[in-house]
Amino acid sequence: MISDAVIDRIASREVAAFRKANLISLELGCQAAANWFQGVPFHWMLDWPSPVPLVAAGAKGAMLMTVDGRTLDDFCLGDTASMFGHSPAPLAEALAKQAGEGLSYMLPTEKGVELGGMLAAMFGLPRWQVTTTASEANRAVIRWCRGITGRNKILIFNGCYHGAVDDVFVDLRAHPSGWEATMRASLIGQVHDILPTTSVIEFNDIDALERELKRGDIACVLAEPVMTNVGMVRDAPGYLEALRRLCSETDTILVFDETHTISSGYGGHSNAYGPKPDMMVIGKSIGGGVPTAVYGFSEEIAERMAKLNASRPSGHSGIGTTLSANALAISAMHAMVGKVITHEAYRHMLALAQRLVKGIEGIIAAHQLPWHVVNVGARVEFVCAEKPSTNGSEARAAMHPRLEAAIHLYLANRGILLAPFHNMMLLSPATQEGQVDRLVHVLNDAVTEFLE
Ligand code: PMP
Question: Which family does it belong to (predicted)?
């Protein structure tokens, strides 16, 4: 329906418009190229569809300001890190206070004592540990699971992403005799073969799950309860319950990585919808943008971890880094969990998500687009394909990178910021109805032009 020729024509017009409207960003991009590799301090910043990244001047609530004096409605929100709004007041106050009291002592603090109870109350698991990133939390959890089960394999789902974690970069690839596991082709410097110790199956495939788990050699299943990194793939009815049951029957540890799905509802997806995992990882937004993450676990897992710890020689565990759980991270989480990530915040976010879903579904219906919307909680995604995907392979096939990049740039040029990689939109407690309505309006304009 939307031709490649039209996509290319609109995309080049939008690139030209971007260049005109963001002169200071372009100039700073040129200056930065002198010393930063490829012109940015972190190469992911090149993933935006614009010719150079916008240079941020600041952000507040759900607004992002650029050095060119532009203000954008921010639906990317740091790809979930700022999902509860940029610099919420309780976080800003806690950080300012902590800044004058030392930031990293390698000692526990009083706030930390309180925070343990707050995490347990919010997420329903009794025991917790802190890391500096969600990637690191997932690496720690994988180590613990292998350590306490004595099994060397983990199971993941095709199309998953759990951070910079070697063990999870395995995909399923079509092969003349069916599907085969393969290491992700884009990895840099990967020298270890992870295929013998990582099993990969499609999400929502109960037969494959049963086959893998009943062998009895899987230490843990590491999963997002809803896949959010390959578009968005919902769990089929009963699938997560089957996953829970099969893990329990085979003494496999069920780990939910709720780094993104904390957007599903208060306490994350597993508390909003069930079932309960044995271990849970939450990163990014738990510190409101301060680098920190946590993993929680049941009493039974804690006992097995303690037993393992007591049985090993003293020395490096391979888990944790020097800055983990420092005073700054603890203060940030204390403010976020105590005052920002509230039931009231979710009520606002979920209502706005419904408004956005309705708006985009209205566009799809009005233009008879072969698209659909996926939504769980405060996370909304439009997909340029007719049918919702049930697994990673289908979700990859449903992507339309050229069209999506052109739409993103069209929106950015009109003051609306979507996450790169996919069409994900997050609603924060600070997002206003007017921002949602503006997004729907501009997206409708974009679709109208692309269809002309
Ligand atoms: N888990 C999930 C589900 C994620 O989406 C991500 C990052 N997108 C991570 C873990 C890793 O987070 P970080 O990059 O902050 O380590």
Answer: Belongs to the class-III pyridoxal-phosphate-dependent aminotransferase family.
| Distance from residue 135's CA to the centre of ligand 1 (Å) | 6
Residues with CB under 6 Å of ligand 1 are 133-135, 138, 161-163, 224, 229, 257, 259-260, 283-284
Alpha carbon distance 99, 328 (integer Å):
8
Domain 4-84+343-451 sits in CATH 3.40.50.970: no
Closest-CA residue, ligand 1 atom 11, reads 163
- Record the tokens describing residue 229, joined without a space: 């990194």
Residues for the chain: how many in total? 452
Both structure tokens of 255:
């780990």
Q: Where in the chain is the domain with CATH 3.90.1150.10?
A: 4-84+343-451
- Angle, CA 272 vertex, CA 84 and CA 352 arms, to 5°: 45
What does the pLDDT look like over 149-192, one tens digit per residue?
A: 999 999 999 999 999 999 999 999 998 888 999 999 999 999 99
Range list of β-strands (E), 292-347: 293-297
How do strand 218-223 and strand 253-257 relate by DSSP bridges?
parallel
What is the ipTM metric for this complex?
A: 0.99
Q: How far is the CA of 391 from the centre of ligand 1 (A)?
A: 19
Choosing from 260, 261, 264 the residue with most ligand 1 atoms within 8 A of its CB, the one to mutate for a pocket test is 260
Distance 134 CA to ligand 1 centre (A): 5
Q: What is the pTM of this model?
A: 0.98
Distance (angstroms) between ligand 1 centre and the Cα of 5 equals 35
Give the residues across from 74 on adjacent strands.
417
Q: Coil, strand or helix: which one is 50?
A: coil
Q: What is the pLDDT of residues 377-401, one digit of tens each?
A: 999 999 999 999 999 999 999 999 9
Fold of 89-340: Aspartate Aminotransferase; domain 2 (3.40.640)
Contact (CB, 8 A) for 32 and 39: yes
